[in-house]
## 1
Amino acid sequence: MNRLNILTFPDPRLRKKAAPITNFDSGLEKKANDMLFTMYEDKGIGLAATQVDIHERLIVIDLSEDRTDPIFIVNPSFVVLDSTQETSKEGCLSIPTFQQEVPRAKEIELSYQNLRGESEKLVADGLLGYCIQHEIDHLNGKLLVDYSSSLKRGRIKDKLMKMKDGKNKN
Ligand code: GNR
Ligand code: NI
């Protein structure tokens, strides 16, 4: 398994729209496993392929305490079952140190394919529902900062660009 590099805001590659997956081959399985490894290493609960510069509609999620219950989600779409907007504070591995309150639909039904290309459905609310909506935002080039004020967005951009400068000075 390989650890992949996670792109950070304001990298323009985070704004690309990911393409549907049509080949359910061993290459897809390898990408998914590398993403899962990277997500575990960075202690995230979800990761979208866009964040590792793969512009395909692939997501990994694992909300379990012991990190043994991954869900691999290909070509996701959802319908809202309960449109009540619930707001919770979200973080993102692509925007370190930043948190943002985001309104999300309370309950959704997700349709997707597994790594073998078989169709699956699941109903999600709470943290799983928010996480799925967060990851699908990534596949569409949307980020937590888009739910924030331009002042706050400007501040986090400056901060992360300075952090990157520091890293590149070695
Ligand atoms: O690790 C993560 N935690 C999180 C918390 C609340 C809502 C969404 C998330 S996803 C995030 C990992 C990440 O950046 N995925 O894209
Ligand atoms: Ni994220």
Note: The CA atoms of residues 101 and 109 lie 22 Å apart.
## 2
Amino acid sequence: MALIVQKYGGTSVGSLDRIRNVASRLKRTRDEGNQVVAVVSAMSGVTDGLIKMAKELSENPSERELDVLVSTGEQQSIALVTMALHDLGVPAASITGRQAGIQTTGSHTRGRIADINGSLMKGLLDEGKTLVVAGFQGVTKEGMIHTLGRGGSDLTAIAVAAALKADVCQILTDVDGVYTCDPRIVKNARKLPEISYDEMLEMASSGSKVMQSRSVEFAKKFGVVFEVRSSLNDNPGTLVLEEHANMEDVVIRGISIERSQARVTIAGIPDAPGMSGKILGALAEAEINLDMIVSNIAHDGAARHSFTMHSSDLGKAQAALKPVLAELSPDAKIETEAGIAKLSAVGIGMRSHSGVAATMFKALGDKNINIGMISTSEIKIAVTVDEIHIEDAARAVHDAFALDKAPA
Ligand code: ASP
Ligand code: MG
């Protein structure tokens, strides 16, 4: 008998029909002879709706009360899924975050899991019950309700799987798994049988958001192997796990893209210590998330700094930079460019293969696509291109690395 944790996201429990469907999938898994623990999100739109209400009511709602409010979304869905299971004759019980023994620390609306005590769940499983656990919530030592950040039900599922030493942890969602690239853009994109935690994290941070990144980090830390698969069919999905030797044979695992990026370049800054700190400090204070950062010395001896950010932050960035630049130099000027996008190629294999960047840049050059900024990490090469070319760029790089073909 295996212990299986299955997480169902908001879309999968988005209507009563879908809840019935989830219940019958749980029953099927149980009838195959397994112990089953479901972790569910709020029905789709519910969390957003609750946050919207709070913000309409109050300009600056208390985060403590926000947690009390939004955690009710998951509480609705666990009760409904459990009722649907009862209707199918399955002995089942709903479990809140507190009952699951999920103890959190940190701040309201972005609590972190400090500990999880699965003894209540274990007892109920031993009695033969199927459990339906509320995702996204936990309680502090003092008994305060915390939520775990948007998308936090993924984290609950991974933590519950770790605590119960589950044999299998499945993240059931509205996509079939993790693909070599977005199949809506690259028609011959291939579903990956497996991907390493680090690659999954890099793909997520560069635009392919399948799961909350914190959950992947947590899974890596506790060695929880999990599978991302569809809640609408029975196709095998993608296994996410610690890298193993064979995985390095593949140079590029996948490509992700991120649209709506903007670039800010500051020129005419004195080439002296402390300048970058001041500029980036102003942007950090304005809570602007920078992505790529490139600095160099122009021919006139003054430095240039360029960074990318989401284009919706552009106005805020300009406002934050103006006073700093005025202070730094009368020659300082700021140039901005919106309408760019980022293409990232990710793979642990690039640590042991050379020429990866060259192949990527040549593929783009052959299609006459100009590269703006370039940044790299040990397992990622990212470039910016004009947003209108991003889809062609993705297809060109996907072809260049033959990602449509399964490695031999
Ligand atoms: N309901 C929460 C959210 O919408 C948690 C989740 O769906 O994972 O962010
Ligand atoms: Mg979700």
Note: The CA atoms of residues 97 and 138 lie 5 Å apart.
